[in-house]
Amino acid sequence: MTIVEEDLKKAYDYIKENISVKPDIAIILGSGLGGFAEYFDDKEIIEYKNIPGFPVSTVSGHAGRFIFGRLYGKNIIAMQGRVHYYEGYSMDRVVMPVRLMKLMGASKLLLTNASGGINDSFESGTLMAINDHITSFVPSPLIGKNPDNLGVRFPDMSNVYDKELLNLLHEAANELDIDLKDGVYLQTTGPNYETPAEIRLFKALGADAVGMSTACEAMAAMHMGMRIAGISCITNMAAGINPTALSHEDVKITADRISDKFTKLVKEFIKKI
Ligand code: HPA
Given 236, 237, 255, 268, which residue is catalytic? Predict the structure, then answer.
């Protein structure tokens, strides 16, 4: 067993001692979007800080707990808060939670985040379904001895975001009359926001939105064979597109503003899967 697998086993054993349900759907709730878990029935909570070896977020606006519960009869495990590479954790720590949720039994994963819009047709408040990603600016979480029990050494990344789940997201959005865009998410290390020159570069590379999370989690989930969907909440247009300076406070305020629309969309999506 690799160290990654040994640590996962300790965390898994702790959760199993405390929670009996087997989740089917895993959701990671991004900055300002954690309120979604309040809608679950039969909630059970596990604080990250009590799980052996588990990374704990240091960012304001990010709680740190798993919420187990049911929605439309489906067993869900949601993360209120995630850790980021910029907090100083190694990539294998950053993706430990997503691996743990797969080990708990979740076969589907919905990733959500707050991100900066690069595509000119977006504006602050746009919701974007992620249809592909660019991770070339962050180290792969799969570097190091391959945990063979989790997945293969050289996993395919041709179809990270499941087409059927993407269609269901759009069906849900259409029914709710929500204008859901589609696009490519590019992950940076953060914690600084980008320069206007970097945003012009990312645009030329085909990115529609930029953020500091998500794609590494999708990579680890894909390695383990999960079916993945992703939603970016565009909380601001990226650097240089508008004259305003970027701030985490504004990101949280916009995430709050879109949280109703986001919640409606995710609920409808859960109903359909
Ligand atoms: N850049 C990177 N990450 C972000 C942004 C951004 O503009 N907005 C929210 N998260």
Answer: 236
Q: Is 232 in contact with 185 (CB distance < 8 Å)? A: yes
pLDDT digits (tens, 9 = 90+) for 198-225: 999 999 999 999 999 999 999 999 999 9
Q: Which two tokens stand for residue 1?
A: 């067993």
Mutate-to-test residue for ligand 1 from 251, 252, 254, 257, highest number of ligand atoms within 8 A of CB: 251
Tell the CATH topology of 3-272. Rossmann fold (3.40.50)
User: pLDDT tens-digit profile of 36-90?
Assistant: 888 899 999 999 999 998 888 776 655 789 999 999 999 999 999 899 999 999 9
**For the chain, which residues make up each domain, given as ranges?**
3-272
- 26, 48, 57, 62: which is the annotated catalytic residue? 62
Please tell me the residue having the least CA distance from ligand 1 atom 2. 211
- Paired tokens of 76: 């869900």
Beta bridge partner(s), residue 71: 74
Contacts of 26 (CB under 8 A, 6+ apart): 76, 77, 78, 79, 98, 101, 102, 104, 106, 108, 109, 110, 226
